[in-house]
Amino acid sequence: MKGKNKPKRIKASARSLSVLEALMTLGQASETEISEHLDMAKSTTHYHLTTLASHEFVVKEGADYRLSMRFLNMGHSTIDQLDIYQVGKHKIDQLAKETGELCILMIEERGYGYYVYDAQGTNAVNFDTTGSQKYLHDNALGKSVLAHLPAERIDKIIDHHGLPATTPHTITDRSKLEAELETIRERDIAFDREEQLEGLCCVATAIQPSNEDGSKGVYGSISIAGPASRMKGDYFTENLAMAVSDTANLIELEMRDY
Q1: Helix/strand/coil for 170
Q2: Burial of 251 (0-12, 13-18, 19+ CB in 10 A)
Q3: Planar angle of CA 90, 96, 101, nearest 5 degrees
Q4: DSSP tally for the chain: helices H, then strands E
Q5: CATH architecture assignment, domain 82-256
């Protein structure tokens, strides 16, 4: 009898989560708009919104609801708990200072890339990335992680997310992506030439500290990004590639003892 109501509780929790996801998509929205978006009975939507509001996960303003600032605190707390963030953020700051460019730290979760920290040098493009969720196939940060994942995991990610084009330069052919991932494994460097955002190019490498048994795991990646007009020639393929590799090595060394 103890587990009799468990399926109902799971279903109720799933519905509450779907309401939160609807607010992420819709932004500030009325009860009716949320109900129609989810194809959920208005009375059910009202119940879940009231419950979420009582726990301060949503806020009602007039006739509309929005996500509360609790999620901002939760996001900061989530990032603060990452070892790679604690070790890497100061190194990213230094890299941005030395290169003058935009430098980014990314982790992979559920087949997506999440930008958890960035720093802007004196010549950096104005591009706010922290908190962004990205595909892995259309940018240097993601490709550098993909290249070092087990083959079965790569296949599952591509099968699930596909290879959608975000610009005309995005790699959308599986065989071409696999060939590029092999090149990345050989060089430990990934390039993105306007594949995620037109006018923006990036160079990245994975963070792979050695485990106690000598094996390596992929903890994330770091990149240097800048305008296509500046990201070219030896400056892009040699100078910045070396700078991002050196910083990754420093992060890996410190993470072994963290």
Answers
A1: coil
A2: buried
A3: 155
A4: 10, 9
A5: 2-Layer Sandwich (3.30)
**What is the C-alpha to C-alpha distance for residues 205 and 191, in angstroms, rounded to an integer?**
9
pLDDT digits (tens, 9 = 90+) for 173-196: 999 999 999 999 999 999 999 999
d(CA 204, CA 129): 15
Q: Is the pLDDT of residue 1 over 50?
A: no
Strand order in the sheet with 200-207: 133-134, 112-120, 102-109, 220-227, 200-207, 190-193
Q: CA-based angle 149:150:152, to the nearest 5?
A: 125
pTM: 0.84
Place of tokens 């706010």: 128
CATH number of 6-68: 1.10.10.10
What distances in angstroms separate CA 192 from CA 130, 138, 202, 254, one per listed residue?
Answer: 19, 7, 5, 27
